[in-house]
Amino acid sequence: MNHQETIDYFLKITWQNIANKYNQLASEFGITQSIGYLLINIDEHEGTTVSEVAALLGLKSTSLSRMLSNLQQDGLIYKEGHQTDKRSVKLYLTEKGKEKRHLARVVVRKFNDYLNIHLSEQDKLQLVDSLKTINDLTTNYKQE
Fold first, then answer.
1. Residues 61, 64, 70, 76: is their CA dihedral positive or negative?
2. What is the C-alpha separation between 92 and 42, in angstroms, rounded?
3. Helices 33-40/7-27 angle, 10° precision
4. What is the DSSP letter of 141?
5. pTM for the complete prediction?
6. CB-based burial of residue 19 (10 Å sphere; 0-12 exposed, 13-18 middle, 19+ buried)?
7. Domain regions of the chain by residue span
8. Of the four, 5, 25, 103, 107, which is 20 to 30 A from 140 by CA?
9. pLDDT tens readout for residues 2-12
10. For the domain bounded by 3-139, which CATH number is listed?
C-alpha cells in the first residue's frame, strides 16, 4: 500500500486543505485559523484557563505562551490570575477579541453551510460516525 492509499493520508490532506482555506479566509480579518479557533473557544463570561486552551489547540502550555503574548499585545485577550490558585491563569476576550471571534464564527458558519449544502444527511452522519470510530481506534491503538 502506498502512502496515498492510507486513511491517515486522506485525513491529513483534508484537514490541511480546510486549515489552509480557513487561514485564507481569516487573513482577510487579520487573524489565522488557529487564532480564530482559540478566540471561539474562550468562554465569554467565565474565561478559559490557559491549560484548557492548550488542550483545545493540542499544545503544551509553554508552547502557547508566545501566541498568547502576541494576542495580548494585539489587544484581543487579557489574562487574570485565579483568586485562590496563583498557578492558574484565565483568558478573557477584549472587545476587539469579541469582534474577531464574531468574524471567525461567521467564517466557520458559512463554510459549514457550504458543506451542508453539498453533502447529504446520510454522508454527514456516515462521516461523523467514521471519524468517531477512527478517533476511538487511534486512542486505543497499541503497537504490537
1. negative
2. 7
3. 90
4. -
5. 0.82
6. middle
7. 3-139
8. 5
9. 877 899 999 99
10. 1.10.10.10
